[in-house]
Amino acid sequence: MLTTRHGVRPLGAADLAAFLELARRDPVVNVFADYRASTTNLEPRWLGGEMWGRFEGGELAAACHVGANLVPVQAGPEDAAVFAERAMARGRTVSTIVGPQDAVRVFWNGVAASWGRPREKRWEQPHLEISAPPQVTPDPLVRRTTRRDLNELYPACVAMYTEEVGVSPEANGGGELYRARVAQLVSRGWSFARFDDRGRLLFKAEVACATPYAAQIQGVYVPPECRGTGLATAGMAGVVEIVRREIAPTVSLYVNEWNTSARAVYQKVGFRESTRFATVMY
């Protein structure tokens, strides 16, 4: 297959093995891209975008997921600059740039002049991992959610998203799509929560993506009136215990540096920083 300038071209099904070998050089950091490739076979119609690969000497050296999220994979500074040049040629189609801090920064510097002003830039996001039992007692009442829980779960998901991102996922008619996403995670067994004896949600978290090597957590939330009571610490320990036993041996997430309360929770549970992520949101 012909390559384009700088040895960059879209990857396809024939490149899947090479891509997975690349991503699994750091299978925890690259869990999102690994999951997307494995579940779509790198077919653009299932990816909802493209996976770009950069080749050196005929070997895949770096990649970049380009869908709703743009995510560099094993990309050094030169790779990120080359991906930015390709992205400039097609214009912005993504809503978020996210991934290892150095690659995101180089990519952003390459596209900033033409991609317009982002809604927010978060340059310091510790990427955390745990590959051992939690260091605190797990909440025994944390469980997988079911469709019967959606009336309590869905509003909590909307509240968490709005608090974290700054806009509601229901904005601009997005409610139906977001509800479908929440229901999909429930049906996969990737949604976890703790409820009180009246059925009120006290804690929730989800697995965003998973491979045989790692699972990435998202959407950790405790209602404001219940915060500071230890629910998040015991709840996260419960999620880690279930996920490591039934989904993947390593659990990861990334968190904003300024979110000191969340970082304290994750530290108590046993998460340790492995690298830094950055996110640019439009």
From TrEMBL:
Residue intervals of the N-acetyltransferase domain: 140-282
Keywords: Transferase
GO terms of molecular function: acyltransferase activity, transferring groups other than amino-acyl groups
Keyword Transferase found: yes
Gene3D superfamilies membership: 3.40.630.30
InterPro entries (UniProt xref): Acyl_CoA_acyltransferase, DUF4081, GNAT_dom, UCP21603_acetyltransf
Pfam family, one: DUF4081
Protein name: GNAT family N-acetyltransferase
Organism annotation: Nocardioides agri
